[in-house]
Write a structure and sequence with these properties.
By secondary structure, the protein is of the alpha+beta class. It has 9 helices and 5 strands; from the N terminus they run E-E-H-E-E-E-H-H-H-H-H-H-H-H. A hairpin with a 4-residue loop joins strand 3 and strand 4. It starts with a strand and ends with a helix.
């Protein structure tokens, strides 16, 4: 197989056809930052944090998606490259809507820590999972049977293999988590509150009001 000659930061390098610039730079000992790159063959660049400069025409290209071509002259660092990457990162942050927080938790009306509950259940720590649920949902067995599950709609797994069954997991924690009944603290504030309705919402409201 005929090798391709390119230059990275002025250093000549021979690489195989089809090699990504990101891989070629790594072979040359340069570590290029990435966010969206996952090593898949059909990768589509989205974050642009891995930009490098093509010195032949002065353009910046994503090193995780562009493959080597004969005679390439690439800069993988330097002020211009760092500024381009900084601009890409600032653009990402400017449109940031809290995606680093799980969308299931954002969409949960109680803002329950669903990812933590899931992890604890996966590890078989059912009682600890129930403790997490009770912080925000005091009737998990009931809610696990009647909740409309707004948290499952935006689940990131939905387009791949279906949303995680958060409602069923919450129900499981409530049914099988061995914990003593929740304690209601004594009334010390001297204040009173009236809750209209004795369903799950009213009972939950009364419990959490008393906690405060």
């Amino acid at each position: 197989m005929s090798m391709i000659k390119i230059h990275i930061n002025g250093r000549e390098l021979e690489v195989a056809p089809g090699t990504l610039l990101l891989q070629a730079a790594s072979m040359a000992g340069y570590d290029i930052p990435t966010l969206c790159h996952d090593g898949e063959e059909d990768h589509i660049p989205t974050c642009m944090v891995c930009l490098v400069k093509d010195n032949r025409n002065g353009t910046f290209v994503p090193s995780c998606a562009v493959r080597v071509a004969e005679g390439m002259d690439i800069s993988v660092d330097g002020d211009e490259v760092r500024e381009a990457r900084k601009a890409a990162l600032e653009l990402l942050l400017s449109d940031h809507t809290g995606d680093c927080e799980a969308p299931c938790r954002i969409s949960c009306p109680a803002h329950m820590n669903i990812p933590l509950m899931n992890r604890l259940l996966a590890e078989g720590r059912t009682a600890e999972a129930l403790e997490v649920v009770r912080r925000d949902i005091i009737l998990p067995s009931t809610l696990g049977r009647i909740c409309s599950a707004p948290c499952e709609g935006p689940c990131r797994r939905k387009p791949m293999d279906g949303a995680i069954s958060v409602c069923m997991l919450k129900r499981y924690a409530g049914d099988h988590g061995m914990l003593p009944p929740p304690q209601v603290p004594p009334l010390v504030s001297g204040k009173r509150a009236a809750v209209i309705g004795g369903g799950p919402a009213g009972l939950s409201a009364g419990y959490y009001i008393r906690q405060k």
